[in-house]
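Lab meeting prep.
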Amino acid sequence: MNNVKIQPVLVGGDINCYSVARAYHEAYGVKSIAFGKIRIGATNHSKIIDYREGTTIEDEEAFLKRLLDLADEEAEEGKVFIIHGCKDEYAEFIIDNKEILSTKYIVPYIDKELKDKLIEKDSFYEICEEYNLSYPKTHVFNKGDEVVDFGFNYPVILKASDSVTFFQHEFAGMKKAYVVQNADEFKQITDEIYSHGYEKSMIVQDFIPGDDSHMRVLTCYSDQNGKVKMMCLGHVLLEEHTPKGIGNHAAIITEYDEEVMTKFKNFLESINYTGFSNFDIKYDTRDNTYKVFEINLRQGRSNYYVTGSGNNIAKYVVEDRVENKELELKIQKEPFFWRVIPRHVVYKFVKNKDLVNKCKQLVSEGKEETSFGYKYDLKGNLKRSWYIFLYSVNQIRKFNKYCK
């Protein structure tokens, strides 16, 4: 590393992007370059990010050229460029263009062939069957299908098989996922979705009972040889409840579950996965099993729960892909409390008071962090500090409005 200068290039501008930039700055003291369409609060006025606005993914050829040109413009002896996508569409773009991007960047991702099998939920569930990963009872619904008996009762969960394509056809009242109470409501919602241009399948799933605290998130890093080297399981305490934010984690405590972790480790190594993977999982009290909803082919939006708990995500990439170290497997066992909302919101809205007490204990032990609470970035930075204050106030408002 003596003559190597790390240059992270991040595609995106949300809290995911900021958390990755923070990991790189904490580990290596470097400023990340980030690309996005417009400036948004999560990455604005930051001392650890050089944000380049005005770049969109709609013109993929131009976007690719911009990334390649950047590497040429910023090139200097010993500089190594590492690229990360911070939303699904960006990660998929990077994977689809991995071969050409690899001429300028370290690209810690799987290949397109495997991506195509994993991104659409119906094909992902077929792979789950093959490797004995439990998932909710599922029915694949296509445009023009009759509303039939799905093999499980209402209420059901309805969501797009391809979420990237789904959000390219935005409409008023659109939701990331719908809880549907009956057949009439199901027809009304699917008619609305397909009338706005989305053509792919919809996933209908058995509704697993339980509040946010039944959710789990698992983040893993697999090295360039397809071996899992880091696993961090999070017990979700609260998710956002705004229509488009449903499923975004707001508070997490890390926990250890050897059986769950072993099962997913075997899965990832069996399919020769490389890079970061992020699984959404829910505990089903009806049969005491953990059921997986999807895999994200990148670090998750809440990735600072991983870095904060002692597993700096930047170091895994650099040590594996730049230094070519043989990494030891690190499985997070000690509990750690992460949040992106004020503490009192967690204490108020988490229904399981044992979990609330656990949060308070971890706070008292200094085992707590929030993604935006980077002292280096906030010190003397009034604009950044003001944004974080307003962000927190807005989160209070949103939870009081949407979380019942």
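Slide two material, second protein:
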Amino acid sequence: MAKALSHHDLSKLIGSIYDCALDPGRWEHALAGIRDALNAQTAVLHLDDLANDRLLIYRTVGIEPYWLEQQAKYIPEIHARLLEDLSTWPSLDVPHVVSRHTPQTYQETSRYFQECLKPQGLVDVMSFFLIHTPTRLAGFAVARHKRQGIITEREIKLGRLLLPHVRRSVIISNMLDIGTVERAGMAEALDALTCAVVLTNERGAVLHANRSAKHMLRSGGPIQDVRGILQAKIPSASKELHSAIMLAAQDEASIGKTGLAVLLSESGLPPVFARVLPMAGGDLRAGMEPAAVAAVFIGNAPDEHDAAGMLARAFGLTMAETRVLASLVAGHTLAETAASLHIANATAKTHLDNIFQKTGASRQADLMRLVMQIVPPAGQPGP
């Protein structure tokens, strides 16, 4: 049985995960830490193109090159099985564990299990979902060898603890849209970004605001500089923002979901979100200048999938309903949506009817107007 992870080791692991937000080349190191903490044989971070059954990003540790090459043959089967399971999945925060969620009869007849996993001695796989849309699936997973046994509650609990940190790092890395951030050039690198970024100390004092953030502060946007302290116009948003900054300063392992997506905009306005990246820990972030404890990223305009996710949270849509909505917002017909999601037309129609009932819309045009109310014009930063 694996020993419990000490608080020091947990903080060090989470620090390595956050370093990946600024330098994606560090993911192999972070994945090795995740693998070891979960007492696993392998670990992967992936971004899948579901429409074309291919991998867009695939960072791995513990998998021999031969098996990496072989695994490519089974991607269509892997995608089909995951999509089938996700169609009834309760939440993206719940991990998928083969030994608990994949029928033994399927494992015994699956080419992937019998020809790829079994020859490697792998007996269990735990997958965590970061992002899921009709065309994309991002997540991280670990696999255990027979000598390590199947996944237990310890690994599930620890994996769920790591999930929001991995998700935050991946989201912020996507927002950056830059390569490695040089230690000496943090301010210059941030100034080149289109999204607003503010570096703060533990009190929320503004140490540096990039060009986009300065414009937002001057133009009366959703954030403001009040006597040198970063504030949101909405009091509840300011409270969560400062709570996340304090956690980032004290112990980034405790930040969890706090500050992962802080809604800054007022009701009736296009939504603008802030995401807090801890800066005091890790090998990379702690050495940067200016020496900040937190970087607050004010997000770019969300795409249709982000909009579907926002509506889902606002109106309590299920995962299946959210996938149907995202496909419709992307411009697909209901029949095309059903085909891409591998569900019957009648099932897609039932999901759409449920969306209408929950949102108060009576037709797809009304639904699109509702979506457009929360999505800023394409390519435009938030106010």
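Talking points for slide two:
The longest strand covers residues 122-132.
The chain has three domains: 7-182, 193-300, 304-374.
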